[in-house]
Amino acid sequence: MKKSFAGKWVVGALTASLAAAPVFANQPDFAHISTTGYGEIQAKPDMAEFSVRVVQSQMDADQAKQGVDSVVDKFLDGLTKNGIDKADIQSSNLYLSPQYHYPEKGKPELIGYRASRTVTVQVMDLDKLNNYLDLALESGINQVDNIQLKVKDEGQYQEAARMAAIKDAQSKASSLAKGFEQQLGNVWRIEYRQQMNQPVVMRAMAMDSKAESNSYQDSVITIRDRVDVTYRIGE
Question: What are the pLDDT digits (tens) for 137-172?
Fold first, then answer.
């Protein structure tokens, strides 16, 4: 099945240079042109990953543990019943720490125990993201650590951005050679510098109110790539 890209081509105007420009660490000893090509693809998110946490403080360590485990178990059961594959759920181990009061004088006083667990969920149907966040709230989860918006076929978008970067480098080299009345020769060296792509990250929030329900619908993910190329000239 043929797939189309949910975005538009964007190629940045970037500098290119003749011979002496320090694009590469080791410069060749013949006439050349070094160019840097950049490409970008803008894509609409179609999946998400979110991490939520339940935190409870109790005087007794076992009570704190049981309270947190009960909330997590309820949330995990609700996720599977609502169509989330178990492979798309990660649940951390319990973190339990004693809490102390430190008076100005005297020894620290134990005032209870703080227990917490984190659950990370990958959502393949973005339209259901809010339903799963509501389920977290209903289960007793009291904190959202983050929500990341992503694309499923990032590899294809990355390939498209890479081809845009290659075309950008070629276009600059041809333009420079023509402008300086030089004959553009073969490629002498290629250095690939893939850019780090960041998903759209929504702000962390407390679960005392519902997440902003539609704040992700207009979000755009920018996928970038870069290539450095050196051409021989005058041959």
Answer: 999 999 999 999 999 999 999 999 999 999 999 999
Q: Alpha helix (H) ranges present in the chain?
A: 61-81, 129-139, 154-179
Find the CATH number of the domain harbouring 203.
3.30.110.170
Which residue range(s) make up the domain with 160?
9-44+154-208+221-233
d(CA 214, CA 129): 10
Q: Identify whether 215 is part of a domain.
A: no
pLDDT digits (tens, 9 = 90+) for 205-235: 444 444 444 566 668 899 999 999 999 998 6
CA–CA dist 141, 201 (Å, integer): 20
Length of the chain: 235
Residue 213 included in any domain: no
Q: Which residues contact 86 (CB under 8 A, 6 or more apart)?
A: 80
Domain CATH number, residue 56:
3.30.70.2970
Judge if 71 and 142 occupy the same domain: yes
d(CA 173, CA 17): 9
Q: What angle do CA 207, 211, 215 make, to 5 degrees?
A: 160
Tell me the pTM.
0.73
Q: How many domains does the chain have?
A: 2
Per residue in 1-60, pLDDT (tens digit) is 444 434 333 333 333 334 334 444 567 889 999 999 999 999 999 999 999 999 999 999
